Amino acid sequence: MTEPFINPYPSYDSAEATASYLNADRAADWLLGHTFVFAELALSARRKVTVLDFGCGPGAVTDHIARRYGARVLAADTAPDILRAARERGTPGAEYHLITDNRVDGLPDACADAAMCSFVLTCVPDEEVHRSVMSELRRLLRPGARLALLNTDPACYGLTFTSVRTGEAATQYRPGDPVPVHLRAGDGKWETFTNYYWPLHHYPELLAEADFTDITQYRPTVEQAEVIADRTLFLSSSWEAERARPPMVITAATA
Fold first, then answer.
1. Residue closest to 205 by CA, chosen among 148, 102, 130, 154
2. Which among 137, 179, 208, 221 is most buried, taking Cβ atoms within 10 Å?
3. Which string of b and e fits 28-46 if b means at least 16 CB within 10 Å?
4. Which 8-state DSSP code applies to residue 160?
């Protein structure tokens, strides 16, 4: 059993936590996470695509998709403060929707051509909520649309990467257990948030249960990122820890 820990930011939903999250260094998330999500959804090869960003957070990814790919983005989150911060970016082509009881307000069935759900399920300790989220994603996607889930690999718990350390080494976590996430801020200090442990097999099982097909799961590597990532981003660090142990996992499926 894991020991409880005291976290100054018990969730990502508060205004204070949002401010701290905005100040965090998320370069590794972009290099080994979002870059591969965009590739999985084939955004560079599509025009006038409608993308659902489920759990959009402060809107950085939404903004990038809209500006880089010219996409219409349906950005959704559970926290009004976070949505307010996202709207303040003034992203062209973005619409913002509140998630209430795991359902996105104001969106009809089959309205999205592609969807992403990045670092969302690990913020939720309730497996039934996960099932509800998968059902909602399935509802919102058009037949044949691709979904990409991005999460941290539990096999890397306790390892310190360029800007993040998740979990504690040699600790046995059970599904739904709280896990500390330490993010390096722009000033070099570390902020602590709370995630929850879910084994990797949990995500394909959820997708299959929600009637998704063509389910894949993989760990993006720094070597792969060198080919497809923004060059300035790639050269911003040596990525030594990430080269030794890829810290992220993408689970993808077709509606």
1. 130
2. 137
3. bbbbbbbbbbbbbbebeee
4. B
Question: How do residues 179-237 score in pLDDT, each as one tens digit?
Answer: 999 888 777 778 888 899 999 999 999 999 999 999 999 999 999 999 999 999 999 99
Mean of pLDDT over the chain: 90
Q: Provide the 10 A C-beta neighbour count for residue 238.
A: 10
Nearest to 148 by CA among 35, 5, 21: 35
* pTM attached to this predicted model: 0.91
Helix (H, G, I), strand (E, B) or coil at 16: helix
The set of long-range contacts for 185-193, using a CB threshold of 8 Å and a minimum separation of 24, is 185/20, 185/23, 185/24, 185/25, 186/23, 186/24, 186/25, 187/23, 191/9, 191/20, 191/21, 191/23, 191/24, 192/7, 192/8, 192/9, 193/7, 193/9, 193/11, 193/12, 193/17, 193/21
User: 44: alpha, beta or left, given left = phi > 0 and alpha = psi -120 to 50?
Assistant: alpha
Chain segment 46-93, per-residue pLDDT in tens: 888 999 999 999 899 999 999 999 999 999 999 888 899 899 999 999
What tokens does 233 get?
């981003």
Give yes or no for residue 10 having a pLDDT over 70: no
Other Cβ atoms less than 10 A from the Cβ of 204: the count is: 17
Residues in the chain: 255
**114 forms bridges with which residues in the sheet?**
51, 146
SS3 198: coil
